[in-house]
Design brief:
alpha/beta, Rossmann fold, 7-stranded parallel sheet, 3-stranded mixed sheet
Length: 359
């Protein structure tokens, strides 16, 4: 077994941030497996493209023989499993891709990793870890004033995306309890930060506001999320990989509950400051309330007491500074944005929002 970790989905938003942070802070080599679907982008990794400790592999987690050969070749000491379809709106429009990647893909990974782990010498078995990265959406929804989700909150998913991730959580749990595979699961709140694909709320609003386009806000805008800066999330996963207890779940949150409308108005105000445009005027005037999406969960909130107590991790980035850093990053990387705004992306935005704007 080598001083190597295998990261799945390492060209996506959170995965690429994790890989970049790992190369900057750790000494192990990273084998980065990604299928490069619409949200995976090798340009995220351009700064480490030729780094001696980063190996990119284009491949599919659902391909069992490919995954098996990759494990045999690189002999990793740990796996961090990010690979997933993750956008709720896309899961509503086309759930099949979420079933394939999030459920079948996780199953195939578990099967191949189990066989690999069982063949390791006993000493190597004892240090091996499989970290499964999941979401708070598996827990369902909260009413205002209800206690935040903790690690014992029952899974109660309400969207096809959340159901697929809940299913993957259950598979990971079962492979530990039935076969002894040394796993740790993390459930995070809403991430934001550099390299996020611009269909998600924060980058979509930043880019639309910058260009003077309508800012479509679902329903009454009062749906609440706990916002977690992606670099804080990646640091938490590193702590879980280092010292997390086998078979345990750790909730990772940003301690930053905000309503969607509060997030959007903050973006408007920062952009008015950083990039004032008299032809657009005050960007809050661009806010347009649109028909809500089906089954829209009202509130998510994370109780991250366990990871703070056991692993001494707390988020470092308050929302106010994190959202400013994120906006500044997008303003400095508009070439990256323009490169990924393909016809397929524009067609998706039109399909998802045009009808709602007409309501």
């Amino acid at each position: 077994m080598n001083n190597t970790i295998l990261v799945t989905g390492g060209a996506g938003f959170i995965g690429s941030n994790f890989v970049l942070q790992w190369i900057a802070n750790a000494d192990a080599r990273v084998v980065n497996l990604d299928l490069l679907t619409y949200a995976g982008n090798r340009r995220n990794l351009q700064s480490i493209e030729h780094h001696s400790r980063h190996v990119f592999v284009h491949g599919d987690i659902c391909d069992e023989s490919f995954v098996a050969s990759l494990l045999r070749e690189h002999q990793p000491r740990a796996i961090v499993h990010f690979a997933a379809e993750s956008h709720v709106d896309r899961s509503i429009a086309g759930p099949a891709a979420f079933i394939r990647t999030n459920i079948t893909g996780t199953y195939e990974m578990l099967q191949q990793v189990l066989r690999y782990w069982q063949a390791l010498p006993e000493g190597d078995q004892s240090v091996f870890r499989f970290v499964h990265v999941s979401t708070d959406e598996v827990y369902g929804t909260l009413l205002p004033g209800e206690p935040a989700f903790n690690e014992t909150t029952p899974h109660a998913p309400n969207s096809p995306y959340a159901a697929s991730k809940a299913s993957s959580d259950m598979l990971v749990r079962a492979w530990h309890h039935t076969y002894g595979l040394p796993v740790v699961t993390t459930n995070c709140s809403n991430n934001y930060g550099p390299w996020q694909f611009p269909e998600k709320l924060i980058p979509l609003m930043v880019l639309n506001a910058l260009e003077g386009k309508p800012l479509p806000v679902y329903g009454d805008g009062l749906n609440v999320r706990d916002w977690l800066f992606v670099e804080d999330h990646c640091a938490a996963i590193r702590r879980v990989l280092e010292d997390g207890r086998i078979g345990q779940t750790y909730n990772i949150g940003g301690n930053s509950e905000r309503s969607n409308i509060d997030v959007v108005t903050a973006i408007c105000d920062i952009l008015d400051e950083l990039r004032p445009d008299p032809s657009i005027g005050g960007r809050r005037n661009l806010i347009t309330y649109v028909k809500d999406r089906p089954g829209h969960d009202r509130r998510y909130a994370i109780d991250a007491t366990k990871i703070a107590r056991e692993l001494n991790w707390v988020p470092e980035q308050p929302f106010e500074s994190g959202i400013r850093k994120t906006i500044e990053w997008y303003l400095a990387h508009l070439d990256w944005v323009n490169d990924i705004r393909t016809g397929a992306y524009l067609n998706w935005i039109e399909q998802n929002y045009a009808e709602r704007l007409a309501q």
